[in-house]
Specification:
The complex is a heterodimer of chains A (about 350) and B (about 425).
Chain A (H helix, E strand, L loop, with lengths): L4 H12 L6 H5 L1 H7 L9 E6 L6 H9 L4 E8 L3 H9 L6 E6 L4 H5 L4 E4 L15 H18 L4 E4 L4 H15 L7 E3 L2 H15 L10 E3 L6 E3 L12 H12 L5 H19 L4 E8 L7 E9 L2 E5 L7 H26 L1
Parallel strand pairs in A: 1-2, 1-4, 2-3, 4-5, 5-6
Antiparallel strand pairs in A: 7-8, 9-10, 10-11
Helix pairs in contact in A: 4-11, 7-8, 8-12, 9-10, 9-11
Chain B lengths: L13 H6 L10 H4 L14 H8 L6 H10 L4 H6 L12 E6 L6 H9 L4 E8 L3 H8 L7 E6 L1 H8 L4 E4 L15 H18 L4 E4 L4 H14 L8 E4 L1 H15 L10 E3 L6 E3 L12 H22 L7 H18 L5 E8 L7 E9 L2 E5 L9 H26 L7
Parallel strand pairs in B: 1-2, 1-4, 2-3, 4-5, 5-6
Antiparallel strand pairs in B: 6-9, 7-8, 9-10, 10-11
Helix pairs in contact in B: 6-13, 8-9, 9-10, 10-14, 11-12
The chains are: A alpha/beta (about 350), B alpha/beta (about 425).
Amino acid sequence: MQPNGDANQRIATISAHLNPRSLQMEESSGLQQVNCRAKGGSSGFRVAILGAAGGIGQPLAMLMKMNPLVSALHLYDVVNSPGVTADISHMDTGAVVRGFLGQNQLENALTGMDLVIIPAGVPRKPGMTRDDLFNINAGIVKTLCEGVAKCCPKAIVNLISNPVNSTVPIAAEVFKKAGTYDPKRLLGVTMLDVVRANTFVAEVLGTDPREVDVPVVGGHAGVTILPLLSQVKPPCSFTREETDYLTTRIQNGGTEVVEAYAAVRFADACLRGLRGDGGVVQCAFVASQVTELPFFASKVRLGRTGIEDIHPLGPLNEYERIGLDKAKKELASSIEKGVSFIKK
Amino acid sequence: MAATSATNFSIRSPTSFGSQVGLNSQSKTFGVRLNSKNCLKRFSGLNLAASFSCNLGLSFLGKEGIATLRESCVPKAQKQSHGSEYRLQPPESYKVAILGASGGIGQPLSLLVKMSPLVSALHLYDIANVKGVAADLSHCNTPSQVLDFTGASELADCLVGVDVVVIPAGVPRKPGMSRDDLFNINAGIVKNLVEAVADKCPDAFIHIISNPVNSTVPIAAEVLKQKGVYDPKKLFGVTTLDVVRANTFVAEKKNLRLIDVDVPVVGGHAGITILPILSKTKPSVCLTDEEAHELTVRIQNAGTEVVEAKAGAGSATLSMAYAAARFVESSLRALDGDSDVYECAFIQSELTELPFFASRIKLGKRGVEAVISSDLHGLTEYEQKALEALKPELQASIEKGIAFAQKPTVAAA
């Protein structure tokens, strides 16, 4: 009779859907385990989720608990985190889960973390724009980042809280004030736009969405989201109607559960980068010189120190150039809004 | 309009991994996986270190998939000549319906099932809010198509052609409640849903999550019998979470690596009817009587542990979704012809004198292929006693369910 290492493999089937690996890494992965923990201790990374009891946080926590790269998972929120922790702690996967409730436990949640994922904040309701959330979420992000600066300044930070176009600059300002800012370690998660883009393009093409790769640059709100359809892999061309349709659809989503899915894929990429894998490239909203704006989303290569490399935009067609100008205008003001929130 | 390169994605060459930027190259090798069951043997001796690497990205292939991938290190062009072996779509993929998809378990469960490469269509049903959940999930770039169905009038459409029906629908416990307290509401819900299943997809595997499982499974059986479509090999009460919890707590206690631990859990799915057979844990563990008792009690009350911790905000949803998804995955693998699928589930059974009993089973294309009776031989004294103690309670719950289902129906609630 087979032990249910098999069943564990099966659940790894589902979770490994989030862990695309290149075959050449497989051969030396035994070594990489050793590399990822310079100080010894259990192999695997320590990940904190700030906002773990929320609509994104809960499924995000469940999926991260399933990720074999995670050895410790800290779930922090201002309400309900004990319940979520108890729930998730029963899952028979390796990560050790600890819950933290309330602001006075924030520091405990963050000490020693390698990766901090921040979905905290209020979600949009129909009719709200991302900027409507600004004031509430700006304050939340500020507090949480102050904690990060104090307790785990070298952690990679994945910021999901909207409006990302403003909360990332806020985070940067908080870290600058604390003297801990490392632009290579602060990433706004735009993966959801990529996931959507891949899905919708695959729909239009009639192909498997796992085979499609659409770079999405700019920002993470409305017209600041700029899918570069001219650079799609596999290469294909779209009519003007298709381009409009796709671009609009990609710019106008709004979801939670798939946000968790996208966030986990992105977090996993960060961990693989931390582990030393090569060729880990994702789109993210980061401090950037790709344009004249201080922050911009584009493809970045992730590695042991966070962002190792920012890819240039590549060739854009006419439609995309116009889109880029529009995106930049709005993005500039969102960034400004974030920066001045802290500076005031 | 379909890109001609669409044919390429059936080619699961490893070199394509390297050349791609790794952005969304998830389960690409699905097409390869199913063609090499004979390779399973090479990897049956995987130790943890290897399985750690295997878990990372290729483990979704299962052990045989890894073997295939390693064997098949041929360049893309060469692969194309084997095009006939590798098909455009996953060779078999299945339709799964989730009844109660917008609930606390339904949502994360739907997410996990959406991510499974074995699923071609995901039908989400609930009485409210399911459009939002479906819209949400439909953005995940995995191949399964998501369809939503709201309300009794759309239930039938939801079920047509479905291979696996999962039923988490119902209300959860609040602190102080037992699973039995949910009986009245959830019994009616399960009865209605299973009536529709009987009409529209009687050949499907039916996974019942709605509590109290000890009663709702017999209810489902009665409904299916009344409709003349009952197949006891295809009706399952999902008890995987008890196994998951047992694995977790035992591994914690004994400092074992979770990936290796497997505890069979038999009996039922409530309180003392949950019987973890700790003496048959793999790998075998030495437990003092005290430890065995402590662990048993903890496993039996783990659900209550979560209900208390959530303080009114619900019961276990995420771990339940995880466990249920694992059982769905196992069922799909079994449907697909995998001959090595074992899970614990609450089924009609002759293992004991009770009409229904949870035990370890072997799953196959037609559902339950074998019941692992050896789990009940050679029990420790403690386990033997616990087994006898659980039988009356389990019997009572089963009878309560059967009686409910056999009541002449009054006007539909």
